[in-house]
Amino acid sequence: MRRALKLVALVACVTACIDAGDRSRENDDAPVPEELRFGGTAVVGFLAEASSMNEFASNDINSDELQSYVLFTTLVRYDEDLQLVPYLAESWETTSDGEQRTLTFHLRHAVKWHDGAPTTAYDVAFTFDRIKALGRLFPRAASFSNYDSAVVQDSFTVTFFLKPHPGFLDPWSFTSPMPQHILGDVPLAELQQDPFGSVSPVGNGPFRFVEHRPGDRWVFEATTDFPEALGGRPYVDRLVYRIIPEPTTMLAELMSGELDVYLGVAPSQVEQVESSPTARVLRYETRIYAFINWNARRPLFADPAVRRALTLGIDRERLVEAVRYGMGEVAYSPLPPYHWAHNSQLQPLPYDPDSARALLDAAGWVDSDGDGVRERDGDRASFELITNSNPVREDVLEIVASDLATVGVEVIPRVLEAQTLGATITGSDRDFDAFVLGWGPQFEQNDRRIFGCATPEGLFHWAGYCNPRVDELLDRVASLEDRAQALPLWFEYQEIIQRDQPYTFLYYETRAIGIKNRLRAVEMDVRGTLINVNDWWIEPGSRRQIAASRSP
Amino acid sequence: MSPPILTVEQLRTYIHRGEQTLRAVDGVSLSLHAGETLGIVGESGCGKSLTCLSIMGLIEEPVRIEPGSSIRLHDRELSELSLRELETIRGNEISMIFQEPMTSLNPVWTVGDQIAEPVRIHRRADAGEARARAIEMLELVGFPNPEERVDSYPHELSGGMQQRAMIAMALACEPAVLIADEPTTALDVTIQAEIIDLLADLQRRLGMAMIFVSHDLGVVSQIADRVAVMYAGQVVEEGDVGDMFRRPRHPYTEGLLRCLPRLDRKVARLPVIPGDVPSPRDWPGGCRFHPRCAYAWERCLSAAPALTGEEHLSRCWLEEEPERRVPSRAGEPGADS
Amino acid sequence: MTSYLLRRLLYAVPLLWGILTLVFFIMHAAPGDPSAMYLLNPNVSQEVVEQIRSNWGLDEPLAVQYWSWLVNFASGDFGLSLAQQRPISAILADRIPNTLLLSGTALVLIFLIGIALGVIQAVRQYSTLDNVLTFGALLIYSMPTFWLGLMLILIFAHLSYQIDGWPELLRFPASGTTSIQYDMLGFFGKLGDRIHHLILPAFALGVGSAASVARYTRSSMLEVIRQDYIRTARAKGVPGHRVIMKHALRNAMLPIITLLGLYLPFLLSGSVLVEYVFAWPGMGDTIIKAILQRDYPLVMATSFVFAVMVVIGNLLADVLYAVVDPRIRYE
Ligand SMILES: Nc1ncnc2c1ncn2[C@@H]1O[C@H](COP(=O)(O)OP(=O)(O)O)[C@@H](O)[C@H]1O
Ligand SMILES: [Mg+2]
Predict the structure, then answer these.
(1) In this structure, which residues have their CB less than 5 angstroms from ion ligand 2?
(2) Residue C45 near chain B (CB below 8 Å)
(3) Closest partner residue to A140 among C43, C85, C293, by Cβ?
(4) pLDDT tens readout for residues B244-272
(5) Are residues A311 and A226 in the same domain?
(6) Prediction pTM value
(7) B273: phi > 0 → left, psi -120 to 50 → alpha, else beta; which?
(8) What's the complex ipTM?
(9) Each residue of B140-150: b (16+ CB within 10 Å) or e?
């Protein structure tokens, strides 16, 4: 089998000659014949623990990625164009009958649980039934809110009954079927705490579970008989997921060769990794954007014109340079550039302090007492900008404060511990002025939770924004399955948000990964960090002397 | 007479404090013969202890034995020995016991351990032998049930018993010389007498020579054969104990004798020698005793007398001008002023 | 002695109860609750948060929550970690050995290094060596543990690999308790690997306290070698080194042993930072996360373990004190 190296559209190549995503590199790879690529241990350093391999219990992104790409298999996957393609499901078909729809998956026959049992439709139905039974105890219950029931047709065919909705396949891109023959007898109340998640998971993916030392590492081993149709046996023999919370320590481990991959290189460390002769930096686009939320319940932020002025008054280009060392793009839309409906005709509002001043003047905010801060009807244009303790975000506060000071708005930066921030901005009294946060939406975005009018307000209605037209647009796109019909509505939505500025979007985050040069073919993109972990291979001469390398 | 076991000649032990030099022991000569007890008396601060410690080689910076001093044990010049060699002599050929038995015993080891230690070091005895020796020594110094007491810690013993344990430790290797520096000063009067009797008894039985130091001439007289009286870092009078009591030659000795409580003279209050012991920082010029001396005349102020005499020596100009032994000041010599 | 220790343990019960009650109310007074770990997660909806709150009993009055915690806790049930969805007893079983290993090694290092240096300094008082060590100790003592840990990593786990000719013996791993190839090693290989991983964190954790133990030992030793019984020992002909090691050291240790009890809480709180820096999967890392995630049951259980360790450490110091000083007798 020739594995084609997939190219990631948006990977920013920094040093063309050493970047894995670069074509010239692909040619360099050619001299190493495929059969020599098998073997070795790849060690990946993560900043945070993956809490559980139990699909029913975990909700953190690291667990998700390990489940979807390493230990388990999902029914469908996104390809590099973010189109859903078959994976554990060989194919699927749908039928429609007005308000009722069926979705039938045909599973591949050759996929086995690592204890030898075949993966069947019963596992899929079991997983679905348990998710429904857990109800709102399942962290992502909302994903399946339009799904009604599942029926097993035969061992490899399962049919779901659901209400039609756009992106109905999306939940199956991040939900891995769990083994019924292992978890089937566990009472529902104990399902989320079952030792399966942390002590003894049994998967059906390209890697099998070897060991978990909480807070320290997860160890996986290549599944030697993993079906060719799903990518075949991974090149590396072992995959070790190490948890190292401190970036400096992580960097030292990468440099000394203890790690092959350092996920989440801090912006300030990128140059150091780049200058190393034995490591390279891979940059990739993430789903995360950073923003300032203006609390429109406060007089200062109630007027869209004022919010516009504030955006115009912040030099976001400079901000990305300063706090992210250029790793990011100035943001302007709640639908990030990877989104199919992203409106790239819009331009980010420029940095234009003069217009900002004019807008503020026009809105009645003038500095009549000459103290450098505007006021109106006795209110001062002064507010507290909060965020959680995180060095990058703290820098953001400082830059925003200094920029806005030049247009006569006073910003008092304040840093809170994450949980305190969470409680403050989601609390029902919404006792804050403005905050800076990062947000990583799913591919199927539900923005009513953020920008919809609502009584009572939901957790995420922190902006206090309400525009009936936006509600109408969001309601319509939520039911329109035809993307061509939905696109103009999404565009209009983005235009309105651009005009009203409930948020000031700061940047779309680009992340940096440090990779040892001996580890080849690593790709990452907006889908995540382990998307092609099967294809990673280690140069034969520079593998760790650990296990006897087994030939496939 | 046989040659002395221990001879100290012109011992000068100075304390070097920056620029200052304190001549704490300033030309002391002593000799000690086998089986003999030499008493050293003098008020506190006269340099008695430093003399003893110098003999043991137990002084440390900033105190130094000055060149020209000599301490000979048999034929060996102790002041020239290395520390290693000294260590083989201490506790073995020459031992010392101290004033405070309470603080002189190590609180965290049993008395048995501490008595056995010199035996183990000098005799290379094994643990069992050393312990047996410790028990034997405890018995010797009068412990009622030594087998049990050998495992006692110092704090479990009375002051008298502690001092007995100290003596046992010092004598465990049967040294030729025992130096006892005020061994009874810290004890009750009745116990004092017991310890003195014990020391006298042991000295007879073991045939060792002893230097017995006390500020109390009365105590010394009970045990010593000969007495050296020290004042201001020097020996001012030396002689047979009986001689000294009958005919003290030095005015300082006279003063000390007068201060003794006596059975035949009941007084409400014991007299003391007027004035204080001077500090080694500034010994008085001339005769060091002259500021406190009832007989002092001009000569005493300007020139220092030497220690003169045959058997009974004294460091006083009265030796040359005995006619002046008339109080020059008002009142009796040594009267409380 | 045994009855004394039992009594001390018994007295510790109300103390522990008081501490834990305090922790309970402080934790609950802090903004947010365990469901807050879902609050900023775009994938979790409001209904889920509310359901989880009621499932975990967080909507009950505080007094009710306290009572049910107390009843469970008193019956030995630590409960379930809300964030990890694992029994807390299992989490503690994973983590306590690592923390004990690290803190224990640091404690041994503290006292071995601290006492050795202190004795050397006392014996060579005012020598150049003494002055250099005094200065060094002050310097190290004033370094924050976190910063010191990072520096150790940068020098011995980072720079050391960049510089050719750096002695192999002075290259250390930056993190974790074992290497990747640990499972493939033989017995001595495994032991060596563990020790190799232990050195930097134990050093980072212990060196500051070792510096202060050295200072205490030095002054205690100087005090002791002026004592009469030291003179007695030398008068017996005991060789100099033996005077120090046998007669002086044990006495000088008395005030130092008291420090043992004092250092333990210090060590445990230090281990929180050191474990973070060195990715050491111990209690410290667990307690930080538990606090940040408002994982109440886990915070209570880890606080309990820390408090018990401190109590036991103090008892140990008492016992050791009695062992070293025969004058001490506990009734
Ligand atoms: N180690 C020392 N350092 C400084 N001065 C000392 C030291 N030992 C003794 N002296 C001084 O030397 C003098 C003689 O002391 P010492 O021999 O103890 O007198 P005595 O035993 O006769 O009372 C005293 O003034 C005392 O203060
Ligand atoms: Mg004295």
Answers:
(1) B 49
(2) no
(3) C43
(4) 888 888 989 988 888 877 666 665 666 67
(5) no
(6) 0.83
(7) beta
(8) 0.87
(9) bbbbeebeebb
